[in-house]
Amino acid sequence: MSESAQMPQYQCHKKVWALKLGDVKVYNDMEGKHYALYPEDKNYAPFFVDKEWFRKHNPETGGYYVVYEDGYKSYSPAEAFESGYTLI
After folding, report:
1. Cα 64 to Cα 59: distance, rounded to the nearest angstrom
2. How far apart are CA 18 and CA 51, in angstroms?
3. Residue 68: which H helix or E strand, with range?
4. DSSP H or E stretch at residue 16
5. With the CA atoms of 71, 73, 78 and 81 taken in that order, what torsion angle do they form, in degrees rounded to the nearest 10?
6. How far apart are the C-alpha atoms of 15 and 70, rounded to whole Å?
7. pLDDT tens-digit map of 31-40
8. Would you say which domain of life the source belongs to (predicted)?
9. C-alpha–C-alpha distance, residues 27 and 36, integer Å
10. Are 76 and 64 in contact (CB under 8 A)?
């Protein structure tokens, strides 16, 4: 790709389910490490994600745990998510 050519632009119109993360913790016990996500909204219980998901997405407090319509689970930093999605 030439440095002078711009990549095509796209606008998002997907519907997703998402929870803003209030905290992200890694626990160690006799069985190994456990990766817990704590939603900012206390109406939702903390939940665990697997090691592969955690390493791939490297979630941080303040970002969003995102689930797409096809079931794919991802992470989005707060600024990227909040500038691209509106609560419906």
Report:
1. 8
2. 20
3. strand 64-68
4. strand 16-29
5. -30
6. 10
7. 888 999 999 9
8. Bacteria
9. 8
10. yes
Predicted TM-score of the model (pTM): 0.86
Helix (H, G, I), strand (E, B) or coil at 54: helix
Please measure the distance between the N-terminal and C-terminal CA atoms of the chain and give it in whole angstroms. 38
- The tokens describing 72, both together, are 């794919």
**Residue 24 contacts residue 60 (beta carbons within 8 Å):** yes
Find the range with the poorest average confidence among 1-10, 47-56, 77-86: 1-10
Rg of the chain in Å (alpha carbons): 16
User: What CA–CA distance (Å, rounded) separates 35 from 25?
Assistant: 6
